[in-house]
Amino acid sequence: MRAVREAVDEAGLVPLVVAPAGGVLGDGDGELPVHRTYATARSVEFDAVLLVGAPGLGGDACGARDAKAGSGNGHGSGPGHDPRVALLLDEAFRHGKAIGGWKGAEAALEAAGVPADAPGVVVGDSGTGTPAEIIGLLGAHRVWERFPAQV
Q: Cβ of 57: how many Cβ atoms within 10 Å?
C-alpha cells in the first residue's frame, strides 16, 4: 500500500480511501485513514478508481436497500461482493473513468460487469505498475476509446 500511496502523492493527486467501515486500513506497510465508506462514496467524487484486491461485503449492506445497486448494468453483485462497490465500478466505467486493480480485483470487476480488458481498465499482479498506468490515463480525463463512434 505504501508504494501506491507514494506514487499517488508524487503525482500530486488527492487519494480518497474507501473501505467497508471507517477507521484505518493497515497491512504491515503502514496505516491509511479511511475517508469514505461503501455507504458514503459515490463515483462522481472520483476521477479514477483503484482496487486493492476484491472488496468484500460490508457489514452494513442491506439486501432490500442495496440489492438494486448491482442491477443497473444487468449484473448482480454476486455472492461476497458488496452491491455498492459494484455500483461504484459500474458508474465509473460508464462515465469513462480509468479503473485499475490488482490482488484479486478481477472478481470485483466481473461482479460489476466491467470487462478487465476494456480500454482504460488496468489489471495487474501487483500494485507496482498499475498506479502509474492509471495516472497516465488521467491526462485525457476520460477513456473515450471505451465508446466507439457509431453511425
A: 18
